[in-house]
Amino acid sequence: MILKVKELVLVQEVPEALTSEQLRAERKPLPGFWVEKAVPR
Questions:
Q1: pTM for this entry
Q2: How far is Cα 11 from Cα 4, in angstroms, rounded to an integer?
Q3: 1-31: b or e for each residue (b if 16 or more CB lie within 10 Å)?
Q4: pLDDT at 12 over 90
């Protein structure tokens, strides 16, 4: 059997569960944007 990892996640035990709004706020990126250049090959 061949398995493929799609996403690496951090699992930790916390004292209380977070609400869906709190989870969404943690995943939301900072406002603004960055211009990235392609690396020359």
A1: 0.41
A2: 19
A3: eeeeeeeeeeeeeeeeeeeeeeeeeeeeeee
A4: no
